[in-house]
Amino acid sequence: MYADIHSAAFTPTPPSVAAPRDAPATTTWPELLSDLGCLGRVWIETESPALTLSHRETLSGLRVEDAIAHVQGDGFALRLLLERCDALRAAGPLSAGPAPPSESLLIEDAQWRPLVALRLAPHQDTTGFVLRALLGAHGVSGRRLRPALQRPSAQRRTLLRAPRSAQRRTLLHAPRTVAGHAAVMPPGAHLGDGVGLMDQAELSGLPALHPRRLRERGSAVGVDPDSVPCVLEALADHAVPIRIITGNDACVRRVDSAPFAVRRGTGWLDLRGDNLIVRLDMTLLDGAWVIQRGHEPAALRELRLYDDDGRAIAALGSLPTPAGGEHPVWAALINALLQ
Question: In the predicted model, is pLDDT for residue 175 greater than 90?
């Protein structure tokens, strides 16, 4: 069932081992990204230090607005912060076995760290024609392509090029309002895709965990992070429809799914569903908070996970029932965490 899911996290090839030459900037990010829809439904994989999410979906309809590439569809949304993306290159397969050398496309930052990996399923494009045509059209084959992008704002460009500690200070010292955060975040952060402004900020590594900031959004209660694996197992046992929001320095994603299988190993846990696999490094899970946005009793609750640096790992929540409330299994699990 999961033959075309690779659970291993992708790893960049060090430049000292194999360094393809940079290709001339003959295309722009909007042009390149708009052509990715021709690949059909691909495995989109993003990795943060503590969590790897692979989800199979099409990138058709992906568009760029003010340096944010975004696409959304039935049960998913993706944002790519292009000012943190440096290049795209073809990479070899991530798993053992014969496969064409350009099975994967990696979007990387300036330090060659992968931000997003795109992979075809084994039964897709078996001759490699579509992928080769795409790579050839943009000059990617055998080279690292650095597409051009017009920089819209000197203020945001200065912020995003600054060290991460300086970015955090700038955001945390801004007025504690949505408008204040918007002054240092891309203006397209409100896209109506189910990802909030502070979700994007926390998951891309700008502000660290701060209980007071969480409580400004409503009720916020810290819970035992050691109980989180049991919660995830129970969600899979009952196939509870949940929303997962996660990301890394340049990519923020939302996936709505009902995981129905779980695997645990030493220090890690996998959740699996239709066209979905989530791997959590439990050794890096350091904090968990139950957030209820607003003060209405019927407001939906979410579970936010943090690592030992206070960086957000993911936000999990129940999809609303037809009546608009929480799934009863989710409600029972959250109530148990709060006891």
Answer: no
